[in-house]
């Protein structure tokens, strides 16, 4: 029979080893906490589509379930309702949500930036061939979104008088334009391309002078950032791999986009040419959000305090800095 002096050191060693195994297992389980990602349908979400198609989420050990939404605002609604952990959305949707009941949102990074994501499509048969022709015309858009913000900036840039804006759901706009219920629409891609295809020769896309660069972001709640930090880091690493794949294999990335959205390859290729698919937090994000908050207050879409500052709290660079320090611009 072994002496007690020999048994207890062995027992202590075994218990210590067991404790380490349990801690490692707990750590791994924490890193594998499932994430529900609400994804706005469109070319802006290509990083997510590539990460799914290439199995980068699984490779990085991220347990990600995606849910499709018609708009970023709808995606953030799922986060607000506790049905999703993180969402892809335009930065204005985050500003508007934070101005309302959800003040605890945080932006982890932009997954796409583009000055051409939103377009103004009109009917030639409505007598529209140039910006000035839009005055007093019926213009459909999605109220309270980046599309309405673009319309306001576009009208101001061109010095065009008031228009009769009609707010609709995103999926209603192409049909309203084709039926003649409105004379023009302002909407994001791929709905803008859909409207042009349906109108054929009667469609005209009015010039976009790069007046607004949209930041399409990944956002979640502060609670999710605290409780699922390791899972979010794995998610970000997968998106960085998708970013590199798009840069290295643009033709294959184009095919992934065309397949996912049921687009023509030519339209998908145009998307890639119009978007910057780098996961980052750049210096233009916060000034853009500040201008949008002031606009929302002027339009009566947000309370006065929304334009008084404090938007920096909505940008959380900590996680992106851990996986890609160069992707975060100095504040």
From TrEMBL:
Chief subcellular location: periplasm
Occurrences of domain Solute-binding protein family 3/N-terminal (ranges): 45-249
Swiss-Prot/TrEMBL keywords: Signal
SUPFAM superfamilies: Periplasmic binding protein-like II
Subcellular location: Periplasm
Superkingdom: Bacteria
Family listed: Belongs to the bacterial solute-binding protein SsuA/TauA family.
Protein name: ABC transporter substrate-binding protein
Source organism of the structure: Pseudaquabacterium terrae
